[in-house]
Amino acid sequence: MKRRRAYILQRPRVFLGCEGKSERGYGELIRNLLQDQGKTIHIHCEAFRGGEPLDLVERCVEHIHQIKMKRDPYKLLALLLDADRRGQSKIRDARAAALARRNQIRLIWQEPCHEAVLLRHLPGCTRKRPTTTNDALLQIEKVWPEYDRPMTAERLRERIDYDGVLRAITVEMELAQFLQDIQSL
């Protein structure tokens, strides 16, 4: 009698490109919080070391193509970008948006930067809208004196829990849509 091989359920794979280590830590935090909620998902977070939007999208596309040659494709693709770099060149911004669309990469703009988005996770800070990166850093340091870049998922988890993510997505629509799409996988 032939034995049947055990069937291993594959977790849906999600790709989250990030500007740097702090965003990668945040992506890993999201993955861990979703797993705590019972969602079996694999979010691969890749840091691209900053840059302007078109450069980041190009590096993201190249990385995804390299991965596709070796493994099954991702079910969902996204890239976290700081909005403070947007608007320096309308032509390059348009090329970045078009390239992302062609490659089905969801752009998640952080207004104006990653620290401002993190701030909106904290109790009483959801509606805060710093206008510059410096202002965001000053505001987050007031309510989170231990904040330091880059933050790992473990360090972020000291202050940000699943309820914090739920707070943030009430005002972070692109992040909310990304998480909703993950839930539907």
Major beta-sheet overview: 4 strands, parallel
The radius of gyration is 17 Å
Low-pLDDT windows of residues: none
Read across the widest sheet, the strand sequence of neighbours is 2-1-3-4
Instruction: State the order of secondary-structure elements, H for helix, E for strand.
Output: EHEHEHEHHHHH
What class do helices, strands and sheet pairing give?
alpha/beta
Please give the alpha-carbon distance between the first and last residues: 37 Å
> Beta-sheet strand percentage?
5-15%
Percent helix: 40-55%
Average pLDDT value?
94
Question: What's the oligomerization state?
Answer: single chain
Helix count from the secondary structure assignment: 8
* Overall spatial form: globular
Number of strands: 4
Overall structural domain count: 1
